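Collaboration report, partner site 2.

Our partner group contributed sequences for two proteins of shared interest, and the home lab folded both. The records are reproduced in the order in which they were received, starting with the first partner submission.
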Amino acid sequence: MSALIEIRDLVREYMIGGEVIRALSGVTLTIDHGEFVAIMGPSGSGKSTAMNMIGCLDTPTSGEYVIDGYNISSLSEDQLAELRNHKIGFVFQNFNLLPKTTALENVELPMMYAGVPARERRKRAMEALDRVGLAERMYNRPNELSGGQQQRVSIARALVNNPVLILADEPTGALDSRTTEDILGLFEELHAQGNTIVIVTHEDEVGRRAKRIVRFRDGTVESDMSSAEREVTGHHVD
């Protein structure tokens, strides 16, 4: 595997009320193509800031972040927006679906921004919904779908531009335990198909399903351990 994400000495500071708050303090991290990684840590640990950096939703105060060969510090806002749309598929806790449009239309949305022709959009959106097991619900609106089905729609939307990275922010946080199991199973299937997946979560069960856990504390990487290493050392997620 080769590096998809390379983060070196990353610092992110914010000015709040005249005081400098350091959310990330010199983070160095590499994630290879095809990995399934969980980023974990308590509230205020820096994991959400790290997610924003990985998703190109924010830029560092200092240090370097390269994704798929692109150094984000050298990109304009428009270039960052294009990179997000083409390279990263986002999955959110609350699904972020447009309520008055069908599942199919929600999945088509990223391709509209990418300038994909209408017929190709429809074809790819239908294929993506079939891939997540929702071929029979593509004309339903979000309020006609269960929470798990809505999350499947959002995963199909994340997949539809064939991104190099699927970035999921607490993707099971709004779901019950049985539905959580279904969604985690889907992520495992996508990983087995070669997708690179990074999940930001505080849930131990989600972390256990990943192949690697990167744990943040106080703006730094506290530990970084593969599932094989966890088994050998007897190290637990919690």
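Second partner submission, folded after the first:
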Amino acid sequence: MSRAAVLAGIGACLPPRLVTNAELAARLDSSDEWVRSRTGIAQRYMADSSVLTSDLAVGAGSRALKSSGHPHVDAVVVATTTPDRPCPATAPTVAGKLGLGHAAAFDVSAVCSGFLYGLASAAGLIAGGIAERVLVIGAETFSRILNPADRSTSVIFGDGAGAAVLRAGSSTEEGALGPFDLGSDGEGVDLITVPAGGPPPEGGWPDPVPDDYYFTMQGKRVFWLAVQRMGQSAQMVLDRAGWRVDEVDHLVAHQANHRITRRLADEIGLPRERAVSNIAEVGNTAAASIPLALVHAHAAGTLRPGDRVLLTAFGGGLTWGATTLIWPAVDPS
């Protein structure tokens, strides 16, 4: 029996402000029907200006720690595209607010793949004997980087945070994370990006315009690449885990778009009804989407102990990844 990272607790946090499609349609050339038919989204939550990414991360992290039944961890990993500051990382702030003393803390930046990258990082810390318990959080205030006049992005994304506590355990017990597959393709850097989001290159930006400081995405190309890369990554970890596709009880993919999730299920040969979805309620929450989907599915009774779960994500970078998990008995957060 090899040492493995085992899921011990989960938690979520959403800001209080709920924004419906109707509210957005009032200022965009759009409608509730248009948004629902293309994305599957009915509403999303958005943080007020006083709410930081770290605030949402602390909310989700505290619930995950309570769910795990243990108040302390050795490390905190925060996956986010929208840190409180460019420097320093948000994770040390979160660790401090949670009263975790001098726990190791760092951020992971892989956009919508961030939580999976964070899980892999935590699993490595545990497998290497560096940590016994790790708190992994996906947290976003993505609404801050959206162009309010761009209906192609402003109707899709929401804010929120989800978290998981991993503990050292055996690879044979329920909750143990299975094999990981991670990948990237830097040639797709401009497909999902904030064009002027960093320091200017030598000589300055070439005539930057205000829109360059907002998030942009080439939706059609991203759609097909997401299905392809997540499908390939998912099949890779299934093969490594020795699972047949028909043995998978639930697919929990990054909640990007309900059409992507359904096409992905088709791509890997899984019935669409086995794909977990909460995008209608919270929208695309980037790095927070997978843990939020896990928390909501657990609360609904969809995820039951012993269920075989396949996780996969695709995000900017381009980045992607997948892993497997047999769902454990965890306390509600």
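Feedback sent to the partner group on the second submission included the following. The chain has a mean pLDDT of 94. The first helix runs from residue 21 to 25.
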